[in-house]
Amino acid sequence: MKVTFDLDFLKPTLQRKIDVLQDELLKMPQADIVTTHVFKDGQYIRTMIVPPNTVIVGAAHKSPYKVRLEKGTISVNLGDELHTLTAPLELDAPAGTRRVGWVGNEELVWVDIYDNPSGCTDIDEIEEILYVIPECGMLDKRLALANNNARLVLTEN
Questions:
Q1: Per-domain residue ranges for the chain?
Q2: Residue 8 to residues 30, 71, 153, Cα–Cα distance (Å)
Q3: Contact criterion met (CB below 8 Å) for 154 and 44
Q4: Is the pLDDT of residue 81 over 50?
Q5: Main-chain dihedrals φ then ψ at residue 117, nearest 5 degrees
Q6: CATH 2.60.120.10 fits 29-156, yes or no
Q7: Residues 6 or more apart from 92 whose CB is under 8 A from it?
């Protein structure tokens, strides 16, 4: 009997690399990212305003959505490839998408537009519907966790 297997399974996947990066970033001081939420006409619109020279890690999305880049430049993965996107720009994003990006030298305004046929306006509920929420939580919860961890580290020393 001949047994063969492919060693590719030992290679880290992009998602695993993103997880490792996210864990390391959570150990660092966090950027002041402003997130706004708008509900209208069967849509949920989430806008992030990100300071220059910031690395951001997103959550995987459960459904397709639209992205509108309104201001700035970001180097970000689209699938497994790195692209530099400059505003103004719109693109369709497929379900399962998870991104990591580096914001350039100016503030970034990134807008995600989702269908919201139920008209849900509860942020926690809509996040459960739309995202595969990482263990560290979504952006606002991540910031609280990271900032709390940073305070713990500072007080232990």
A1: 29-156
A2: 34, 39, 37
A3: no
A4: yes
A5: -65, -25
A6: yes
A7: 64, 65, 66, 67
Q: Evaluate whether 57 touches 100 at the Cβ level (below 8 Å).
A: yes
The four Cα atoms 133, 138, 141, 146 give a dihedral, to 10 degrees, of 100
Per the structure block, which two tokens stand in for 153?
């580290």
- 2 beta partners: none
Distance CA 156, CA 150 (A): 10
Q: Work out whether the CA dihedral 143, 27, 106, 17 comes out positive or negative.
A: negative
Q: What is the mean pLDDT of residues 24-31?
A: 89
Tokens of 103: 């914001």
pTM of the model: 0.79
Question: Using 50, 70 and 90 to split pLDDT, how confident is the model at 16?
Answer: confident
- Residue from 59, 54, 48 nearest 28 by CA: 54
More confident residue, 110 or 6: 110
Which single residue is written with the structure tokens 């989430």? Answer: 46
